[in-house]
Amino acid sequence: MSASRFLIAFLIGAFFLTPAFAASDREDDIQRIDNSAEVLQEIMSTPDKAIPQKLLESAKCIAIIPGEKKAAFMFGGRYGKGLAICKTAQGWSAPLFLTIGGGSFGFQIGASSTDIVMLVMNDNGMKSLLSDRFKLGGDASVAAGPVGRHVAADTDLKLTAEILTYSRSKGVFAGVSLDGAVVEADHSGDRSMYGADTSRQEILDGKVRVPRDAETLIREVAQYTQA
Q1: Where along the chain do its domains lie?
Q2: What is the 3-state secondary structure (H, E, C) of the chain?
Q3: Residue 20 pLDDT > 70
Q4: Does the reported pTM lie above 0.85?
């Protein structure tokens, strides 16, 4: 690749990626919460292509990244901002904010928007959410999740995978491996919603009151779980 073409590819990539990793504010937090609730509602309203309800009921945490972006110009990359909620003794926790990113080189050009849902199935996966950064398939085992509202969840899959992953792009929802993607804490999002003195552990332990703006999301999740 010539120097000029490489520079063009770099600038286009920077244009797409920079907004995703800019500092979050409260308006951004609320938009993410609203979009996440909408994504889950739309996915679960299609019984033959929904997430199995048994898996939702047994998940420790649910992470949703609405409208994850994928852009490519002589390289491929994906990024997105989302949130996670976890089960507590009282029900579901307040949202914890996060980002996801990853990339691969290849001769591609184009862009798409993809919704991502991740089910955290055990305590090890939950611990990963509390870290500043972890890699799917590296720091946490990951597998494509089964699809179908009433499909019986595979026992071996539930026992071995720490995180089950799904994506929806152009209306098509399916289990997909996000092996290699990197999930990072969005501390600016947490601060905007809860203040500087609130820790991620406190949020996921249910010690932080669910914000009024997140009540619709929590009700949506509660429809499909026993929490």
Answers
A1: 3-223
A2: CCHHHHHHHHHHHHHHHHHHHCCCCHHHHHHHHHHHHHHHHHHHCCHHHCCCHHHHHHCCEEEEEEEEEEEEEEEEEEEEEEEEEEEECCEECCCEEEEEEEEEEEEEEEEEEEEEEEEECCHHHHHHHCCCEEEECCCECEEECCCCCCCCCCHHHHHHCCEEEEEEECCEEEECCCCCCEEEECHHHHHHHHCCCCCHHHHHCCCCCCCHHHHHHHHHHHHCCCC
A3: no
A4: no
